[in-house]
Write a structure and sequence with these properties.
This protein is an all-beta fold and 122 residues long. It contains no helices and 11 strands. Strands 2, 4, 5, 6, 9, 10 and 11 form a 7-stranded mixed sheet that branches. Strands 1-3-8-7 form a 4-stranded antiparallel sheet, with no helix packed on it. The radius of gyration is 13 Å and the shape is globular.
Amino acid sequence: QVRLVESGGGLVQAGGSLRLSCAASGRTFSYYAMGWFRQAPGKERELVAAISWSGGSTYYADSVRGRFTISRDNAKNTVYLQIDTLKPQDTAVYYCAARLGWAPSANQYDYWGQGTQVTVSS
């Protein structure tokens, strides 16, 4: 079992930045590829970024590439999502998730956090 706890969300103005964190506990964090998803009201959950167990490979959705940066620190059992140049359309609940095996654009993950709200005002 892997427990994931997100933090770092909040209310920010358009053009600002946020860094989301996801702290993992339980089984060995470095075994897992990690992903960040988001779900806006009335919309389906979408994968925005993913990172392999070593951090050597990353994936970004087209809608966020160039503004979002995913990274991880296996010594701290934490994965991060740096979000720059925030837009109102980035408003959503952001979730981190863990899966065994690297499949860059896959949506199937084994463990999920509870989410953190990001709200961007115009």
